[in-house]
Design goal:
The protein is α+β, with helices and mostly antiparallel strands and 113 residues long. It is built from three helices and five strands, in the order H-E-E-E-H-H-E-E. Bound molecules: adenosine monophosphate and zinc ion.
Length: 113
């Protein structure tokens, strides 16, 4: 599959890893829009977007979210942070391997859109 994030998982494309275990990977976004901008992904490409989540495959998403406080701590985000998922065309999703943006390191704006 021609997927940038699968290639990052496989080590075929370099990344700056922030956290890794057997199920998920967090790495620095190549084009950060905040002092801290990490991408968190399930390693397995089962879900292309949030729109693919069902009761049967949601466990990995719960697991990923259970690790967010730890990843935020590793990233120095003691004052809080924002988690964003872009989904589909109107969501401006560019990489079709489900991922969550972890943003922080400064006071973020109140407006989401
Ligand atoms: P999205 O628009 O939600 O699909 O976000 C995709 C994100 O992946 C963007 O913020 C990109 O900057 C980021 N990205 C794309 N290629 C890479 C890469 N090779 N390493 C790290 N981040 C990347
Ligand atoms: Zn993938």
């Amino acid at each position: 599959m021609d997927c940038i994030f699968c290639k990052i998982v496989a080590g075929e494309i370099p990344s700056t890893k922030v956290y890794e275990d057997d199920k998920i990977l967090a790495f620095k976004d190549i084009n950060p829009c905040a002092p801290v901008h990490n991408i968190i992904i399930p390693k397995e490409h089962v879900l292309s977007s949030a729109d693919d989540i069902t009761e049967d495959n949601a466990e990995i998403i719960g697991y990923l979210f259970s690790k967010i406080p730890h990843i935020a701590k590793l990233s120095g985000l003691e004052e809080g942070y924002r988690i964003i998922n872009n989904c589909g065309t109107h969501g401006a999703q560019t990489v079709k391997h489900i991922h969550f943006h972890l943003l922080g390191g400064k006071q973020l704006g109140e407006k989401l859109c």
